[in-house]
Every structure is written in C-alpha cells, then in structure tokens.
Amino acid sequence: MDTFNFLVSILLIIIAIQYQQNWIVFAILIISILSTRSLSTAITLIISTIVVYAVLGSGDISSLFPVVVFGLIIFALVLGLAEKPKQPEYYPPDPGYGEMLGGG
C-alpha cells in the first residue's frame, strides 16, 4: 500500500466533507480506487471513507478532526508495515554474452 497516496486521498475526502460536497468525495474515491494496484488498498480506502463520512458528517467537525486524522495516519502506517513480496534475484547472463562483441 502506498501510504502517502492513501493519506492524501483521505485528507482530500475530509476537506470535501467539510464543504459538504458529496460528489467530490465520490469522485476522489473512484479516482483513487482506479489508480490503486491492489484490492486491499481499494477495500481499505472504501472502509476509511465510510468511517470518515460517518464520523465527520454527523457532528462537530472541529473537535473530531485531529482524532480522525491521527487515527488514519496510524492506520495507514500499520497497514504499510506489512511484509512486501521479495523480488527474485537476477540470474547472471550466460558466459560469452557479456563480452564486448557479444559472441561466445
């Protein structure tokens, strides 16, 4: 998961919710989902958007804003610590192809 892109998307969603622009929230969500490379990131983004919309859309935004932002930062960092698959090591080229003329 790309933690920086996740946090930027969520912060843009929070700003759009503050201005009560629901269509911008859905546009940011759709663009972020289409640009992600994994299903887990898309699911995490959807769940985070629902949580942010439920928490910030229901009451006083100014008192809950720092709690939600720090909670999402911690959530993104925890998900970013997952072990990534290792790239297989490269095999050396066949002997002879590394010469100057490429012949063997």
UniProtKB/TrEMBL annotation:
<keyword id="KW-0472">Membrane</keyword>
<feature type="transmembrane region" description="Helical">
    <location>
        <begin position="62"/>
        <end position="82"/>
    </location>
</feature>
<keyword id="KW-0812">Transmembrane</keyword>
<keyword id="KW-1133">Transmembrane helix</keyword>
<protein>
    <submittedName>
        <fullName>Uncharacterized protein</fullName>
    </submittedName>
</protein>
<feature type="transmembrane region" description="Helical">
    <location>
        <begin position="6"/>
        <end position="31"/>
    </location>
</feature>
<feature type="transmembrane region" description="Helical">
    <location>
        <begin position="38"/>
        <end position="56"/>
    </location>
</feature>
